[in-house]
Amino acid sequence: MSVSMQFNHKRLQSDFNALATIGATAEGGVNRPALSPAHLEARAWYAAQVKQAGLALQIDGAGNHSALLRSPNPSAPTLLLGSHLDSVPEGGRYDGALGVVAALEVLRSIQEAGLNLPVHLEAIDFTDEEGTLVGFIGSGALAGTLTPGDLQNPRGGREALLAGLTRAGLTEDGLFTARRDPATLAGYLELHIEQGPWLYDSGVDIGVVSGIVGIASFRLAFSGRANHAGTTPMAARRDAGLGAAAFILAARQLVLDNFPGCVANVGALRLEPGAFNIIPGRAELALECRAVDPAELDRLQTSLLERAQREAESFGLGLEVSALGQHAPAPMSQLAQQAIQEAAAELGLSSQSMPSGAGHDAQNLAPLCPTGMVFIPSVDGISHSPHETSRWDDCINGANVLLGAALRLAGSSDCA
Ligand SMILES: [Zn+2]
User: Fold this and answer.
1) Which of 355, 405, 376 is nearest to 98 (CA)?
2) What is the rounded distance in angstroms from the CA atom of residue 272 to the CA atom of residue 335?
3) Model pTM score
4) CA dist 129 to 46, 62, 108, 149, 236, Å?
5) How far apart are CA 405 and CA 386, in angstroms?
6) Alpha-carbon distance 348 to 345, whole Å?
7) How far is the CA of 276 from the centre of ligand 1 (A)?
């Protein structure tokens, strides 16, 4: 048996194209928010492909849809391959969808080649990856990190969550039955578009993801004194807006100077009372920062908050900081990274180790089992947009690397 087997390119492309018509938008993207009618239609399409391929279909309590190719050994662990069929509102055709159709194609290819592997193979479509409702419902439920509290005040609103669950025939209690024993998992591999410009600009074929960034979020409130904008002398003002503005600029410089590879963003800013003729008495902003290394994420957030305090003092302002939670960085396993790198090399493709600046289901799987991600170039780095595109050759390369890496991780060469 060769680990250099390749799959049916035409079938992958026709699957991809068929899927892109479900929830298609006039701009050329797709609109398939989690558990929306279009998303459920995509899932029904997937279920039909699974059955047509003669694979077993499994739908768990969290709505995750899986194709199964069973090992002759019933007690074998399961190697998961997958991604997600939901999209952001007005999203692109590649994000998530490519990884799901490629995972399915890997199973079909191995089935058709008549390979008996020492693992069960599962091509899984995870629920609510994009966070329309809660965020990572499917992978969080599988990993056991989803909690009942997460469902009480979800980011998409409680009503939207309950309506979506009802549409999909799911229940809140049922979600938690999707939990798996890590001992049953041999690993998780995900093919995904990079969603940034690095691979495309550098001409590298394949990104071997080293880790998924950790994210820390804060709400900062600078407080000064609201006063008449016409009669208060400039030197006597305690303008909360100035503290916020100075901090936004300082945060950018701090990251550029001291935290290469990290990012910080102020994505929302509100001045109160908020009028032409009133000096802002309060300025609230939403701060997020990301780093791949846990210690660096700690240093980054400490530095940003210290800087905010200094800017507040320099304008005579108070500062309140609310920490709004944190996703820990998720390093990918060495075993999986090596399997991906070797699979790329065997296909004559260039590859490069790189972090993922975006969150993925793989971050929930990483603490459970050997987990890896394969990135392919995004044209001009555009994603979460109807203009999101990857060259089809790159998609084929990525799917072939997924296949090669899966065979390696399955330990298939040991039982040839
Ligand atoms: Zn995605």
Assistant:
1) 376
2) 52
3) 0.88
4) 17, 12, 24, 18, 50
5) 30
6) 5
7) 42
Ligand 1 centroid, distance to 282 Cα (angstroms): 37
What is the number of other CB atoms lying within 10 angstroms of the CB of residue 359? 20
Rounded CA separation 301/303 (Å): 5
* Residue 130 CA to ligand 1 centre (angstroms): 7
Instruction: Convert 379-403 into a string of H (helix), E (strand) and C (coil).
Output: HHHCCCCCCCCCCHHHHHHHHHHHH
Alpha-carbon distance values, 315 to 100, 228, 254 (Å) = 52, 17, 19
Q: How far apart are the first and last CA of the chain?
A: 6
DSSP at 25: -
Dist. CA 99 → ligand 1 center (Å): 9
**Token code pair at residue 323:** 């920490």
The pLDDT value given to residue 4: 54
- Cα angle 207, 179, 156 (rounded to 5 degrees) comes to 75
SS3 287: strand
Distance of CA 87 from the midpoint of ligand 1 (Å) = 8
Ligand 1 centroid to 129 CA: how many Å?
Answer: 7
Q: Cα separation of 315 and 382, whole Å?
A: 39
Residue 66 has phi, psi (to 5 degrees) of -130, 145
CA distance 404 to 347: 9
CB-proximal residues (5 Å) to ion ligand 1: 95-96
Question: Helix, strand or coil for residue 211?
Answer: strand
State which H helix or E strand residue 306 sits in. Answer: helix 294-314
Ranges under pLDDT 70 in the chain: 1-4, 6, 412-416
CA of 88 to the centre of ligand 1 (A): 9
Tell how far the Cα of 23 is from the centroid of ligand 1, in angstroms: 16
Distance CA 86, CA 384 (A): 12
Q: What pLDDT, on a 0 to 100 scale, did the predictor assign at position 195?
A: 96
State the distance from the centre of ligand 1 to the C-alpha of 95, rounded, in angstroms: 4
- Report which secondary-structure segment, H or E, holds 296: helix 294-314
